[in-house]
Amino acid sequence: MKIVEKDFRISTKSRNQMIDITGQVGSAVSQSGITDGDVIVYCPHTTAAITINENADPSVPHDILLTLAELIPQYRAGYRHSEGNSDAHCKSSLIGCSERILIKDETLALGTWQGVFFCEFDGPRSRKVMVQIRGE
Fold first, then answer.
1. What are the pLDDT tens digits along the chain (136 aa)?
2. What CATH number is attached to the domain comprising 85?
């Protein structure tokens, strides 16, 4: 089994933001030389996340962020974490820090409307995304 690892940086511009990183992940897969296998996209930050969702309509990321803000408000009585970003930690845990995607014929095996998103919950910041590609 061949394993290829690649990192890239994301610069976020808002406190809460979803950035489509499908192109960067797809490029890493193309450059790896791996035809079939899988790729893990991982976020090594406790206030950010990785998810797969629709990337054709920009209203979808907006609606996801709106729903998360309603479910987990930035300021809430009872938060104890002193940095003021408890909501970001909760959102990150809810969404998750990684996604695993199959690779078929050197391409991400995503559905027609699916894309890979980096989710920022404590920006703006400079962030790192780690990609591990495995296959033959």
1. 999 999 999 999 999 999 999 999 999 999 999 999 999 999 999 999 999 999 999 999 999 999 999 999 887 778 888 788 999 999 999 999 999 999 999 999 999 999 999 999 999 999 999 999 999 8
2. 2.60.120.460
105 lies in which domain range?
2-135
Strands (E), the chain: 2-11, 17-20, 37-42, 48-54, 98-104, 107-108, 114-120, 126-135
CA distance 49 to 54: 16
Residue 72 structure tokens: 């987990």
SS3 65: helix
Query: Do residues 14 and 129 lie in contact, with contact meaning Cβ atoms separated by under 8 Å?
Result: no
Number of domains in the chain: 1
